[in-house]
């Protein structure tokens, strides 16, 4: 199959890419423009910070000479007493300021309460408190009331009082009571001079007012509010110049001071087509927004001229400093004034704020930012977005990046220049963000599209190669061996999927040296052969080595596996050359099971050979020992009781008997003895031995060894030879005692064990029912290299404290194997050894145990469903419960149990916990209680009680029975669960 790569229509691709970029850019820009125009809180916050930056770098107007602050500072308070001063002293301060020729004197304070220091006031309060009248007849009437003194001063000068509007609904103070001074307004809709018809709207509406005493308000011609509120981020940027109250407009303190200074009793309001207002006072135009907010440029409190009130009272200030100026009287003393966080200077006092407003107005440093500017910013952002889209389409990444940076810089510089020259405050936020986002996202889309095109071209060009690679991958996946490849330094660069059988994260092995996977004892063996450089016949083939690849077996134990490795070097060219060596490739084959089978076969052959040898030796010894054992009996019968020869002949007899016992061990080892298969209880065998003279004699040799027994009372029966099993138990106990020369505890246990799955322990133990005998000591333990040899005849590393044949462990092995049993050995040097015999259990009962143990208590006719994956276990449990009268049904998996319960009911479910290959007991019960909530069940398992068993009981299941169970156990459990709840 051929592909015409050059025939691809690149022109159509370019048009499609351009269209995609433009449409994406347009949609993206419109989305952000819509969000920007809605102005959510976080966008408003960022936008304010952007305009703060523009204003911070604007050209500052020079300070005007028309403004002066009179500060009641710490110095003044220290000299003339703490605030509030008596009104006569405030009157003196104001008189001295007025005498200097100031045209407007504004008080940044509210005189809302009568002066308590006035004689008229303290006479009344003191008389009522002390209970007598104070004679004030000698005090001149002119100074009897300080408030009158101050009011008289206010009536004779160009004073402006301050007050504060309240916006809470609970405020009910009216303007009439306060003597406020509403504005006289000449309003025009536009600069053409045409007066408007409709009232202006959008101003803040106050509900009440905190004002001066009427005595003071009526004495002045002008007054203004002091209100100023920061934005939501705590920064003060704009201050209202007009507020509506009782359907009339009132000026701020700054605006009222300006009107006093200009001797103007009215203002003009022009509503511009751009959406903002202009307030005109005495020829000065002040741009504000629709709520009459003026944006303030803060130049720093240090630029505002000020004098101390204390210096004025002491007469140390020249009158020329006040002539024809606006004087703002307030306090910067600690605790007497409110402060504001601003964008220009960190903190402004209330007095400095109104002074800065007047400074902006007088210096004609106005700021214009109506809401309509948002539309202009959105329009500019859209234009720049379209331009950057076209740039990305036509140019490369670096060129378009330079264009984007230029556009962003141009927006910031342009908005700064516009503000410096015209006072129009545009935000560069939206245009800059649109440029950045469009460049970033559209460049990614462009490169992604280009990669898609390149990928398509590559796919067309390499189609046949892909097909070959796919076939090769299929072959590699089907190969069970691990195919690997190394670089020139011996680091792994490739592993076939079959590695996942050994490790959960194969990718973690990539880049690691191959030697990290080699068992420490085999490092020297594989040092020069794993990262093979040779090829051909000299390469590595069939290298047996142990690798640290977890080989999961049995009860999830992890052991080092045996592997066969074949490897050869790979070169750039066909002829090997050191300069062209690029790495190694090869195959790793798992031979762990093969090695185990070989070891088992070797062990079986060894034991067979030894058995044949033992059989021959035993045959010959039996012939020799016949006379040695028989004739001493005859001689003893013929000799008199007092014969001195009887003792010597008895010694010969005992030696012959001991030799006969060794021969019996040899016959057992050779499996040539008579195989007895009687029904016995291993507990009886254990009890008979530990009460026998042989055990008493053994205890005398090991007085410091203490035997502890734990024999299961419900132990199942086995089939075997009582004599052989007694001999095996004796040998196990004697060997354990010999391993504890310093004494200690020797624990002998018997119990039932049911295996749902096979266990790979010392030897592989298949699933089934077993009677286990365990002997655990606290002895010296067995070294790892000796563990595999302990059952070989005459193999021992112990010093024999008593005479022995050296066949004890071998006899144990042979006895267990005679009765199809298994053995497990666990040992740690310095800790001890534990040997467990697994003997197949039988459910046959001995005649001595044929009595019924209260079966009538466990009878029933209820419907019982047995769930177990072992057919033998289903048969056993079914027969037991049927014998007790129950109506029994069986299923062999969790899936079948769920299907059965969909159409049937059961009074009780006997549920196996572990069922490999399908749903286990937990999942099966969860599914069943979805169909039949509250379904009764008991749990069975060959393993000990686990967390999953307890979790299953929390779901509602009943008691737990460990396999193998007896008729009594399962009968009690079934009846108890049926009778519960």
From TrEMBL:
UniProtKB keywords: ATP-binding, Kinase, Membrane, Nucleotide-binding, Phosphoprotein, Transferase, Transmembrane, Transmembrane helix, Two-component regulatory system
Residue intervals passing through the bilayer: 21-38, 373-393, 400-419, 425-445
SUPFAM superfamilies: ATPase domain of HSP90 chaperone/DNA topoisomerase II/histidine kinase, CheY-like, Homodimeric domain of signal transducing histidine kinase, PYP-like sensor domain (PAS domain)
Organism of provenance: uncultured Desulfobacterium sp
InterPro entries, per database record: CHASE2 (IPR007890), CheY-like_superfamily (IPR011006), HATPase_C_sf (IPR036890), HATPase_dom (IPR003594), His_kinase_dom (IPR005467), HisK_dim/P_dom (IPR003661), HisK_dim/P_sf (IPR036097), PAS (IPR000014)
One function term, GO molecular function aspect: phosphorelay sensor kinase activity
Lineage of producing organism: Bacteria, Pseudomonadati, Thermodesulfobacteriota, Desulfobacteria, Desulfobacterales
Reactions this protein catalyses: ATP + protein L-histidine = ADP + protein N-phospho-L-histidine
Record EC number: 2.7.13.3
Top-rank taxon, per record: Bacteria
A Pfam family reported for this protein in Swiss-Prot or TrEMBL: HisKA
Every PAS domain range: 468-504
Domain Response regulatory: 863-978
Residues with 4-aspartylphosphate modification: 912
Name of the protein in question: histidine kinase
Residues in Histidine kinase domain copies: 616-843
């Amino acid at each position: 199959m051929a592909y015409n790569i050059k025939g691809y229509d690149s022109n159509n691709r370019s048009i499609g890419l351009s269209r995609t970029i433009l449409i994406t850019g347009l949609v993206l820009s419109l989305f952000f423009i819509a969000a920007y125009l809605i102005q959510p809180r976080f966008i408003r916050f960022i936008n304010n910070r952007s305009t703060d930056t523009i204003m911070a770098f604007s050209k500052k107007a020079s300070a005007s000479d028309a403004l002066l602050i009179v500060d009641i500072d710490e110095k003044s308070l220290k000299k003339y007493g703490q605030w509030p001063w008596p009104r006569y002293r405030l009157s003196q301060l104001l008189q001295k300021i007025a005498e200097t020729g100031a045209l407007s004197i504004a008080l940044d304070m509210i005189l809302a309460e009568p002066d308590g220091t006035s004689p008229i006031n303290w006479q009344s309060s003191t008389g009522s408190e002390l209970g007598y009248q104070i004679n004030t007849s000698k005090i001149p009437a002119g100074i009897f009331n300080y408030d009158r003194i101050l009011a008289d001063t206010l009536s004779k000068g160009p004073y402006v009082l301050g007050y504060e509007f309240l916006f809470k609904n609970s405020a009910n103070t009216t303007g009439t009571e306060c003597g406020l001074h509403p504005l006289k307004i000449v309003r025009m809709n536009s600069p053409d001079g045409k007066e408007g018809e409709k009232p202006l709207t959008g101003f803040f509406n106050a509900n009440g007012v905190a004002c001066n005493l009427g005595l003071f308000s009526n004495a002045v011609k002008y007054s203004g509010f002091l209100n100023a509120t920061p934005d939501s981020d705590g920064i003060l940027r704009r201050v209202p110049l007009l507020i509506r109250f009782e359907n009339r407009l009132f000026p701020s303190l700054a605006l009222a001071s300006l009107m006093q200074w200009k001797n103007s009793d009215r203002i003009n309001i022009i509503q511009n087509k751009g959406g903002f207002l202009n307030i005109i006072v005495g020829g000065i135009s002040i741009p504000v927004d629709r709520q009459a907010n003026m944006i303030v440029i803060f130049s720093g409190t240090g630029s505002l001229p000020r004098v101390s009130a204390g210096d004025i009272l002491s007469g140390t200030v020249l009158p020329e400093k006040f002539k024809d100026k606006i004087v703002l009287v307030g306090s910067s003393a600690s605790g007497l004034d409110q402060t504001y966080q601003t964008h220009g200077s960190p903190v402004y006092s209330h007095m400095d704020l109104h002074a800065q407003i007047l400074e902006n107005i007088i210096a004609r440093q106005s700021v214009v930012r109506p809401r309509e500017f948002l539309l202009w910013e959105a329009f500019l952002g859209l234009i720049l977005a379209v331009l950057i889209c076209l740039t990305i389409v036509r140019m490369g990444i670096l060129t378009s990046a330079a264009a984007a940076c230029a556009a962003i810089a141009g927006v910031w510089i342009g908005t700064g220049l516009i503000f410096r020259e015209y006072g129009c405050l545009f935000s560069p936020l939206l245009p800059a963000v649109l440029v950045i986002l469009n460049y970033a996202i559209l460049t990614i889309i462009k490169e992604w599209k280009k990669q898609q095109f390149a990928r398509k071209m590559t796919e067309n060009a390499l189609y046949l190669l892909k097909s070959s690679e796919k076939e090769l991958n299929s072959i590699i996946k089907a190969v069970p061996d691990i195919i690997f490849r190394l670089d020139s330094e011996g680091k792994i660069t490739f592993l076939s999927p079959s590695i996942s059988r050994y490790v959960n994260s194969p990718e973690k092995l990539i880049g690691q040296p191959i030697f990290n996977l080699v068992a420490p004892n085999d490092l020297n063996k594989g040092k020069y052969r794993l990262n093979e450089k040779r090829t051909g016949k000299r390469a590595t083939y069939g290298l047996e080595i142990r690798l640290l690849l977890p080989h999961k077996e049995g009860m999830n134990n992890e052991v080092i596996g045996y592997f066969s490795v074949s490897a050869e070097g790979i070169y750039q060219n066909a002829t090997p050359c050191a300069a062209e060596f690029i790495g190694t490739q090869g195959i790793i084959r798992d031979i762990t099971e093969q090695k185990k089978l070989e070891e088992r076969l070797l062990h079986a052959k060894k034991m067979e050979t030894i058995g044949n040898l033992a059989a021959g030796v035993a045959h010959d010894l039996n012939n020799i020992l016949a006379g040695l054992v028989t004739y001493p009996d005859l001689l003893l019968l013929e000799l008199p009781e007092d014969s001195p020869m009887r003792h010597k002949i008895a010694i010969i007899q005992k030696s012959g008997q001991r030799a006969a016992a060794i021969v019996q061990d040899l016959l057992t080892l050779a499996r040539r003895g008579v195989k007895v298969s009687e029904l016995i209880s291993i507990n009886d065998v254990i009890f008979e031995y530990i009460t026998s003279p042989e055990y008493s004699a053994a205890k005398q040799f090991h007085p410091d060894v203490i035997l502890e027994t734990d024999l299961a009372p419900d132990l199942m029966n086995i089939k075997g030879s009582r004599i052989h099993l007694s001999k095996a138990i004796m040998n196990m106990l004697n060997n354990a005692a010999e391993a504890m020369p310093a004494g200690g505890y020797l624990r002998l246990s018997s119990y039932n064990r049911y295996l749902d799955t096979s266990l790979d322990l010392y030897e592989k133990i298949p699933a089934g029912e077993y009677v286990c005998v365990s002997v655990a000591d606290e002895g010296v333990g067995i070294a790892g290299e000796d563990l595999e040899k302990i059952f070989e005849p005459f193999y021992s590393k112990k010093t024999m404290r008593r005479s022995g044949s050296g066949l004890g462990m071998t006899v144990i092995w042979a006895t267990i194997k005679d009765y199809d049993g298994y053995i497990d050995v666990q040992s740690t040097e310095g800790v001890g050894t534990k040997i467990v015999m697994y003997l197949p259990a039988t459910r046959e009962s001995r005649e001595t145990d044929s009595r019924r143990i209260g079966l009538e208590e466990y009878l029933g006719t209820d419907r019982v469903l047995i769930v177990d994956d072992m057919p033998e276990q289903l048969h056993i449990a079914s027969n037991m419960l049927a014998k007790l009268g129950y109506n029994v049904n069986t299923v062999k998996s969790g899936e079948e149990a769920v299907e059965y319960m969909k159409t049937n009911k059961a009074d009780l479910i006997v549920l196996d916990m572990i069922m490999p290959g399908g749903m286990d007991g937990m999942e099966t019960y969860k599914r069943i209680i979805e169909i039949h909530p509250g379904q009764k069940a008991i749990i069975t398992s060959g393993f000990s009680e686990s967390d999953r068993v307890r979790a299953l009981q929390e779901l509602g299941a009943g008691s737990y029975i460990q396999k193998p169970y007896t008729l009594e156990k399962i009968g009690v459990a079934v009846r108890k669960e049926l009778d519960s709840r």
